[in-house]
Backbone:
């Protein structure tokens, strides 16, 4: 579906080969898109647009659930929330889409878009999630002076804004409390303000350490720990504060400094292109990336101790032969693995416990249109879920027209093996937000054509018919039918006109080429393979299943198979599609009646040859006798007539 306020693809006409703008380049077209319970929420317009609209779309159908433009705030959807509220008079979860304008947050009902309540003066900082879905923010606050600091750890809690504020009705009834209200989030929201004695933060953690200075953490885990870090050419310092209720505020490590290697004197270890790149709660690890030497450094978030570093990534990238230092590689830590990719089109997977390289994968151009050039292999891991990690391509400022064939693929997290790829479809956005996933459906903006696509397992439809509904034993019948893709995308006018009889379903191995042909204007290929359909007969009178066989549909979605029933009776004929990675299964059924074939007539005995001769002779004699008899009768009649005349 179109994302909103701009056309996509090639502009044509006087513009020639120029492509329409793609909503990237600092505009944030798809930024902060989220999913809640199978619904995609996104901003229709770019971040700087004077008008703003939030759109809610059903991921399964592509139908718009609601679309709202708001007179208040002019904000954009930034995040979602499912809040579990379990008290004596109120049990269950509440779902919100949060629209933010400045430091005012508007809580919209996720199912309707209606405004429920708002919070003003929300403090800045990264959002972390509590065990019940509450939104949390952390900071260190200096109540002392620059020479005599007095640091307090503070936790801001979105739930406490309401629970600690003005309430009406039953105290623990969430819905009645928030309905139509506005809360001062700074005055009401801090539910933790605890002194952390003995802490002294090194210069560089804040521009001002005077009274009222704050320091933001690099990572926090609710009810576990909050981590503060400082990096300089001299090394790395971690300060970790316990958030466990029994030991809250107790420093797990305090100013534990790792001395950097000498090479750090010659490189830029801070700034926008070096930085904290990933964290593992399970293994208590924080990973820092330095751009010029292309190395990851890991530290313990329990002790602050240096643990390991990766080998330098020594490949040359697409930026004219220099190393991959132009940007921090995008990273994901999942299943005890650190996975990263950047401008050179190479994916690296490290053991997060040791830094050992598990595997690497290099994306290779599949079309002559898409050769390595500036930024053309800028890979990013966009999603990791279950046992797969998905990668796409984005670019800082793409030339126009954009080259076809931008990579989009899925790798097995454990092995690095390619699971599927569909290059040339879903080009990501650098500034506008990557693909998201919900209900096992990926939703992404495509900067080729300014459309939003949903990628996932789709529904199929099987039909069946037979050449005869009534037949006899021993007589073959032909069983035919279709297997079609009935995903919502196939119901769009363009596909319905191109495929008036329906869009055929194809095998997993042919899926990517087929999707490129259907939706992305690529040429149709001749090596498309169909779907395997299993056919069997069910003898309804004897409760007996008879396998007929398995056949494969053709590129029109048609399958056929022959069967010769050997026994009379009534049969249900079933065509069954078990499903694939791309399609959910389906089946279809029809009925036939089989009667016993009529008995074969007893054969007439064949006489000996001489009897044929005798028979022919007798026949000739009989003909002669009959001829004589008839002749005599004619003569007799004439004599009678002559006699009668004489009498007159």
Residues:
């Amino acid at each position: 579906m179109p994302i909103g306020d701009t056309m996509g693809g090639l502009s044509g006409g006087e513009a020639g080969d120029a492509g329409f703008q793609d909503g990237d380049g600092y505009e944030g077209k798809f930024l902060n898109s989220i999913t809640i319970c199978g619904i995609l929420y996104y901003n229709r317009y770019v971040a700087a647009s004077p008008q703003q609209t939030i759109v809610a779309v059903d991921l399964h159908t592509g139908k718009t659930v609601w679309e709202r433009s708001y007179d208040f705030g002019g904000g954009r959807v930034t995040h979602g929330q499912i809040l579990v509220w379990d008290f004596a008079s109120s049990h269950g979860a509440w779902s919100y889409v949060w629209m933010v304008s400045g430091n005012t947050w508007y809580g919209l009902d996720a199912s309707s878009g209606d405004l429920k309540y708002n919070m003003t003066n929300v403090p800045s900082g990264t959002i972390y999630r509590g065990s019940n879905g509450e939104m949390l923010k952390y900071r260190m606050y200096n109540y002392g002076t620059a020479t005599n600091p007095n640091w307090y750890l503070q936790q801001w809690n979105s739930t406490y804004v309401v629970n600690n504020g003005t309430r009406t009705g039953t105290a623990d009834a969430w819905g009645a409390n928030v309905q139509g209200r506005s809360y001062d989030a700074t005055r009401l929201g801090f539910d933790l303000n605890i002194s952390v004695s003995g802490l002294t933060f090194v210069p560089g953690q804040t521009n001002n350490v005077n009274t009222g200075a704050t320091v933001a953490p690099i990572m926090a885990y609710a009810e576990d720990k909050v981590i503060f870090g400082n990096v300089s050419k001299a090394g790395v310092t971690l300060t970790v504060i316990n958030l466990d209720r029994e030991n809250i505020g107790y420093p797990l490590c305090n100013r534990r400094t790792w001395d950097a290697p000498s090479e750090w004197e010659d490189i830029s270890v801070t700034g926008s292109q070096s930085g904290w790149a990933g964290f593992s709660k399970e293994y208590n690890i924080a990973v820092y990336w330095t751009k010029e030497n292309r190395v990851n450094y890991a530290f313990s978030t329990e002790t602050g101790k240096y643990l390991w570093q990766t080998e330098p990534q020594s490949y040359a990238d697409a930026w004219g032969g220099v190393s991959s230092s132009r940007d921090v590689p995008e990273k994901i830590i999942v299943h005890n693995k650190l996975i990263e990719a950047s401008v050179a089109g190479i994916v690296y997977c490290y053991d997060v416990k040791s830094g050992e390289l598990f595997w690497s994968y290099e994306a290779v151009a599949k079309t002559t249109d898409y050769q390595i050039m500036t930024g053309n292999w800028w890979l990013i891991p966009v999603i990791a879920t279950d046992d797969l990690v998905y990668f796409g391509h984005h670019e800082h400022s793409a030339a126009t027209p954009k080259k076809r064939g931008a990579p989009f693929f899925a790798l097995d997290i454990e092995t690095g093996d390619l699971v599927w790829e569909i290059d040339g479809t879903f080009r990501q956005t650098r500034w506008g937000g990557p693909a998201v996933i919900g209900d096992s459906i990926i939703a992404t903006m495509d900067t080729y054509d300014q459309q939003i696509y949903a990628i996932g397992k789709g529904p199929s439809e099987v039909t069946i018919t037979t050449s005869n509904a009534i037949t006899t034993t021993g007589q073959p019948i032909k069983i035919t039918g279709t297997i079609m893709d009935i995903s919502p995308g196939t119901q769009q006018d363009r596909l319905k006109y191109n495929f008036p009889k329906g869009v055929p379903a194809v095998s997993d191995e042919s899926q990517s080429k087929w999707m490129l042909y259907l939706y992305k204007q690529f040429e149709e290929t001749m090596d498309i393979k169909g779907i395997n359909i299993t056919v069997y007969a069910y003898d309804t009178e004897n409760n007996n299943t008879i396998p007929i066989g398995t056949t494969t549909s053709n590129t029109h979605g048609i399958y056929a198979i022959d069967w010769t029933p050997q026994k009379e009776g009534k049969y249900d004929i079933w065509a069954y599609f078990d499903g694939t990675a791309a399609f959910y299964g389906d089946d279809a059924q029809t009925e036939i009646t089989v009667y016993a074939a009529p008995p074969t007539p007893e054969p007439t005995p064949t006489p000996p040859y001489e009897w044929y001769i005798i028979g022919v002779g007798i026949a000739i004699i009989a003909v002669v006798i009959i001829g004589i008899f008839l002749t005599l009768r004619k003569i007799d009649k004439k004599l009678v007539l002559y006699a009668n005349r004489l009498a007159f």
In short: Helices lie at 158-163, 174-178, 185-188, 493-498, 508-519, 609-647. Residues 128 and 136 are 5 Å apart (CA to CA). DSSP finds six helices and 43 strands in the chain. The mean pLDDT is 84.
